[in-house]
Write a structure and sequence with these properties.
Length: 289
């Protein structure tokens, strides 16, 4: 992710609007059945900091984290995408319907740096999001996916989406992509986001008393959300890339010192509430072809 141009930052609005995170809450829909329960931030941060260097170890580590979060048995699977490469990791939270909300981050990283920002920050957050949502019955089925080989041209996400049956593809109501979190307070890639998903993000942030600024990565190469948009799946990418922080990516500076845990925790706090909002607000019927 390089050479971005981002919309004017409303950091002051963020500072004014910022509210202190709490360990759980309700979403704008208001019903307690749509609530969620955050994991303690020290657990979230531990998962982030426990970052193996090799891509294959990341796959095994994410599997272990999902297991410890309670995702196991037939709900926890791997998908081999190409020979001699680590598989991608999928954790399913079964809802009341088979309508799907997909939440993704990618497991692989380039050689330079530790790839903790790009994108262990997204992948290692998935088990904690799973835990936050499993506290209540869900209308949608959630699929948390640590994609493989994003850096080699979105190989894993393209494989996943092209292997869905047409009927299952129409069941996907949203794909929420988590990319490069924690360098800055969470932002949204606005000009690529589906308008309904964007409105729900704004509503969630307002409800929490905060704000998620738009920061468009116009000249960015690609991200896993693009694989889904090609098939008309509504997507949204949440990240922390700004003109200064983009220089960290794909360099030796992509290491733990690039991450501010308070920003990272804030991203988790907002995304957990956001996913609960989407579950409450999005239809559970198949999308029109
Ligand atoms: Zn990435």
């Amino acid at each position: 992710m390089k050479n971005i141009k981002f919309a004017p930052l409303l950091f002051i609005a963020f500072l004014i609007g910022g509210a202190l995170p709490t360990l759980g809450g309700k979403v704008p829909a208001g019903s307690s059945s749509h609530g969620y329960r955050l994991v303690p931030f020290h657990l979230l941060d531990h998962r982030l900091e426990f970052v193996p260097y090799k891509n294959a170890q990341r796959e095994r580590t994410l599997l272990g984290m999902f297991r410890s979060a309670g995702c196991a048995g037939q709900n926890l699977t791997t998908e081999l995408v190409s020979k001699n490469r680590p598989p991608q990791v999928l954790c399913r939270l079964q809802g009341q319907t088979n309508s799907l909300i997909i939440v993704g981050g990618h497991l692989d990283h380039v050689r330079r740096g530790s790839g903790i920002v790009d994108d262990w920050s997204g992948a290692s957050m998935l088990p904690s999001l799973y835990q936050a949502l499993r506290s209540q019955p869900r209308r949608h089925t959630f699929l948390f996916i640590g994609f493989t080989e994003e850096e080699r041209g979105r190989v894993g996400s393209r494989y996943f989406v092209t292997h869905l049956t047409p009927a299952r593809l129409r069941r996907v109501r949203a794909m929420v992509n988590l990319e490069c979190l924690g360098m800055y307070p969470p932002e949204v890639w606005e000009d690529h986001a589906n308008p309904v998903l964007l409105r729900n993000l704004s509503a969630t942030a307002r409800y929490l008393g905060t704000y998620v600024p738009g920061a468009d990565c116009d000249r960015i190469g690609y991200d896993d959300a693009m694989s889904f948009r090609r098939f008309h799946v509504p997507t949204i990418t949440i990240h922390s890339i700004t003109q200064p922080t983009v220089r960290v990516l794909h360099t030796r500076r992509d290491n733990l010192s690039a991450i501010h845990l308070s920003y990272y925790n804030r991203a988790y706090w907002i995304v957990a509430a956001y996913l609960a909002t989407l579950d409450a607000q999005l239809p559970v019927t198949p999308r029109q072809p």
